């Protein structure tokens, strides 16, 4: 298998992992899902790629008996978004991944939480604020994804609790989140390009 094909397979594996960002995806599920694009792909080959992605901190590897699975990391998301490039993964165009839109959402979540530094902010409140400010097609799951992303990067502290109708997520900005907003630190997946 040539290097270009390996890079493309790794990108496809990361894309699958991003879809299930809260849950690891098994080597078997990966093999079955990308068989159509890569018909000769074996589970052993998938395992080589998931070990590579884990070694490069783009995924977390989980081993259980005869099954291996991975969960995506924020570094893996940054690679898929085109915020950073890694030579071993097919690069993404930041235009086609809507990176500037994602950065705007992430910074907006941080700004909202920064307005209420001492308290936890409910995800539905953050969502309502975005919708009121013009993001009419924004869905709550998108807010939750970006809140998870910011928590993984240590820019937010997140709690959840069960309520009628499902889980509720609460977020509070951290000192690193404040530093990011004040431009004393930068992050490829959050900072504005002109910061």
Quick structural summary:
This protein is an alpha+beta fold. The chain is 48% helix and 16% strand.
Total strands: the figure is: 6
Strand content: 15-25%
Count up the helices: 8
| Average pLDDT score | 92
Order of helices and strands: HEHHEEHHEHHEEH
**Large-scale geometry:** globular
Stretches where pLDDT is under 50 for at least 5 consecutive residues are none
CATH topology of the largest domain: Arc Repressor Mutant, subunit A
What is the alpha-carbon Rg in Å?
18 Å
Please indicate the count of domains. 2
Task: Name the CATH superfamily classification of the largest domain.
Answer: Winged helix-like DNA-binding domain superfamily/Winged helix DNA-binding domain
Span between N and C termini? Answer: 41 Å
Taking the sheet with the most strands, its summary is: 3 strands, antiparallel
The largest sheet has its strands arranged as 1-3-2
Which structural class matches the secondary elements? alpha+beta
- CATH class membership of the largest domain: Mainly Alpha
The CATH architecture of the largest domain comes to Orthogonal Bundle
- In helices, the fraction of residues equals 40-55%
């Amino acid at each position: 298998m040539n290097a270009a094909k390996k890079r493309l397979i790794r990108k496809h594996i990361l894309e699958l992992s991003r879809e299930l960002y809260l849950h690891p995806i098994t080597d078997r599920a990966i093999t079955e899902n990308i068989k159509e694009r890569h018909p000769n792909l074996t589970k052993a080959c998938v395992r080589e790629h998931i070990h590579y992605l884990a070694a490069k901190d783009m995924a977390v590897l989980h081993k259980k008996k005869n099954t291996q699975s991975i969960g995506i990391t924020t570094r893996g998301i940054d690679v898929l978004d085109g915020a950073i490039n890694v030579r071993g993964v097919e690069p993404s165009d930041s235009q086609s991944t809507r990176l500037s839109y994602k950065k705007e959402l992430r910074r907006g979540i941080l700004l909202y939480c920064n307005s209420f530094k001492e308290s936890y902010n409910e995800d539905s409140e953050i969502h309502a604020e975005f919708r009121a400010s013009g993001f009419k097609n924004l869905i709550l799951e998108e807010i939750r994804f970006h809140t998870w992303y910011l928590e993984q990067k240590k820019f937010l502290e997140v709690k959840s609790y069960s309520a009628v109708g499902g889980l509720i997520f609460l977020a509070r900005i951290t000192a690193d989140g404040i530093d990011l907003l004040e431009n004393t630190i930068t992050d490829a997946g959050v900072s504005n390009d002109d910061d």
